[in-house]
């Protein structure tokens, strides 16, 4: 499916590279290219709804939707235990955990915006630290 793979680094001080690969071409499924691009962008914003609905009609929506849904699952697996830990521990630790989860949420928002921008250019962003449970 993906023929090329490119690793870029957004910030020289950033030690976590973001992998960007070529995505399946728009218009490769039963939808036209413009409609498919719309659903690819929506798949990054609402993966739990768009991916199961449109994965069989578009290889591009399938690839982007899997990546975005895996990111949502990864975030749930990370943030749910952190919320439990914050609730069980004292105020100081809960404050630190809350700040950490807030930063993680902000970083995720930035990655989703980057993924949407790259999707419009025909690339798929491989989210860092993503558990790829759905293949």
What can you tell me about this protein's structure?
It is a single chain. This protein has 135 residues and is mainly alpha-helical. It has one domain (31-126). Helices cover 60% and strands 10% of the residues. It starts with a strand and ends in a 9-residue tail after the last strand.
In short:
Its main location: membrane. It is built from four helices and three strands, in the order ββααααβ. It is mostly helical.
Which assembly state applies to the chains in this document?
single chain
Radius of gyration: 17 Å
Ends apart, CA distance between termini: 13 Å
In helices, the fraction of residues equals 55-70%
Bin the strand percentage. Answer: 5-15%
Q: How many DSSP-defined strands?
A: 3
Low-pLDDT windows of residues:
7-14
Shape: elongated
Report the structural category.
mainly alpha
* Spatial order of strands in the largest sheet: 1-2-3
What count of helical segments does DSSP give? 4
**Largest sheet, strands/sense/barrel:** 3 strands, antiparallel
Spell out the helices and strands N to C: EEHHHHE
Topology diagram in text:
Blueprint: E1 5-8, E2 18-22, H1 33-45, H2 47-54, H3 59-88, H4 91-120, E3 123-126
Antiparallel strand pairs: 1-2, 2-3
Helix pairs in contact: 1-2, 1-3, 1-4, 2-3, 3-4
């Amino acid at each position: 499916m993906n023929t090329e793979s490119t690793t870029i680094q957004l910030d020289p001080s950033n030690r976590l590279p973001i992998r960007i690969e070529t995505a399946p071409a728009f218009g490769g499924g039963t939808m036209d290219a413009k409609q498919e691009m719309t659903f690819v962008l929506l798949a990054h914003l609402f993966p739990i709804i768009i991916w199961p609905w449109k994965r069989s009609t578009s290889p591009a929506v399938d690839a982007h939707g899997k990546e975005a849904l895996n990111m949502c699952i990864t975030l749930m697996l990370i943030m749910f235990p952190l919320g439990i830990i914050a609730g069980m521990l004292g105020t100081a630790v809960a404050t630190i955990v809350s700040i950490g989860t807030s930063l993680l949420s902000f970083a995720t928002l930035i990655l989703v915006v980057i993924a949407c921008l790259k999707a419009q250019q025909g690339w798929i962003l491989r989210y860092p630290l993503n558990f790829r449970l759905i293949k």
